[in-house]
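DM from R.C. (forwarded with permission)

"hey, sorry to bug you on a friday — could you get me a structure for this? deadline for the figure draft is monday and I only need the backbone to look sensible"
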Amino acid sequence: MVDDKFLQQIKLFGELKAFEWEELSKVIKEQNYVEGDVIFSEGDASTELYMVSKGEVEITIKIAPQLGDSTVYVVRPYDIFGEFAFVDPKPRSASARCTKDSTLAIMRRADFEDLAKQFPQIGLNFYRSLVRLLSERLRRMNLYLKETFTRCAGLEI
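My reply, with the result:
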């Protein structure tokens, strides 16, 4: 079980009542990783969402075999990753590796869905916040693509 105070720092859950924080903490497990551990690889099947309690995790994608992996995001305490696989049953679109010793809070989709059936406000707050987060990340990726393409074309924005 994970600490309620940690969960309250995660933007995805919004404002909940004390008993809701307690119920939520029951479906989230903590796991420790050491620097260099691969949490998941691009193409893996999974339904977990990860929250960084301590440490740092690098999210990478494979661009082309000759280029190796490219870092797209670095996840630090109180941030999340793995949100795509949490809502979509398709394989992982990126890989995650610890760049520092880390403690991660892990929530399985099936466990959360069971909880949301019992406590709809938890589910409503979570999914509303998740949509905002995904929108923010998509906007950041759009800007990155725009800057990359204009730089490759030798243009200025």
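R.C.: lifesaver. The longest strand covers residues 48-64.
me: no worries. Residues 39 and 110 are 19 Å apart (CA to CA).
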